[in-house]
Amino acid sequence: MTTDSIQRLPRISRILGIEPFIITTLWTTAEIRQNDFTPLFAQWKADDDRQLFPLFDFNIFKQVAVSPTHTLHWPTVPIQVKLARRTIEGVLDLDPDELFRQSTLVQRTEHIAIGSLLRKARQDAGLSQLDLATRSGTTRNYISRIENGKSDIQLETLNKIVQLGMGKQVRVEIA
């Protein structure tokens, strides 16, 4: 299996807002999403999942944090999970896949087509992918991957490719 065929699973990057029982988060998918916990509370009550009942108190609910595994967790809410003959203790972490599935999209960040910009600049300069790669100290395959949106690129690397490969400057504007 190649890295192209592996799809990255959405995970939480950071919490943007906490309202009474609604959490707004930024995801690794570059999306801002909201989770309304009111329907979950109803389900937890119906399931009589008492370990989750502390979240019904907004003072505890708002203590949410992003865990090292990039999901929502409450470090002050202890849980116990019984497996066969042993009990595992920890703090409350919610399943990130389920959080994503149950969330509502608020805003999708705009994709910047770096690859298309690089291809146009390279073609305008009359260079092949191999020419650009040779001049900038990279490979034709890497240039192709960037131009086709198959590889991410750091701004510093883009600047190197443009400066060394085309003799031009990269300008970034935040508006």
Give descriptors for this structure.
alpha+beta; 175 residues; 2 domains; NE0471 N-terminal domain-like; single chain; 434 Repressor (Amino-terminal Domain); disordered N terminus; three-stranded antiparallel β-sheet; 27% strand
Write the layout of secondary structure elements.
Blueprint: E1 12-19, E2 22-27, E3 31-36, H1 38-47, H2 58-61, E4 65-66, E5 72-83, E6 86-93, H3 96-102, E7 104-108, H4 114-124, H5 129-136, H6 140-147, H7 155-166
Antiparallel strand pairs: 1-2, 2-3, 3-7, 4-5, 5-6
Q: Estimate the mean pLDDT confidence.
A: 91
The spatial strand order of the largest sheet comes to 1-2-3-7
Main sheet makeup:
4 strands, antiparallel
CATH class of the largest domain: Alpha Beta
Characterize the quaternary organization of these chains.
single chain
Q: How many alpha or pi helices?
A: 7
Portion of residues in beta strands equals: 25-35%
Number of strands: 7
Proportion of residues in helical segments: 25-40%
Fill in the CATH topology of the largest domain.
NE0471 N-terminal domain-like
Q: Label the overall shape.
A: elongated
Describe the structure.
By secondary structure, the chain is of the alpha+beta class. The chain folds into two domains: 12-108, 2-Layer Sandwich (NE0471 N-terminal domain-like), CATH 3.30.2020; 114-166, 434 Repressor (Amino-terminal Domain), CATH 1.10.260. It has seven helices and seven strands. The protein has helices at residues 38-47, 58-61, 96-102, 114-124, 129-136, 140-147, 155-166; strands at residues 12-19, 22-27, 31-36, 65-66, 72-83, 86-93, 104-108. Strands 1-2-3-7 form a four-stranded antiparallel beta sheet. The protein has a three-stranded antiparallel beta sheet with strand order 4-5-6, with no helix packed on it. Helix 5 (129-136) crosses helix 6 (140-147) and helix 5 crosses helix 7 (155-166). The chain is elongated. The two termini are 40 Å apart. The model is unreliable at 1-6 (pLDDT under 50).
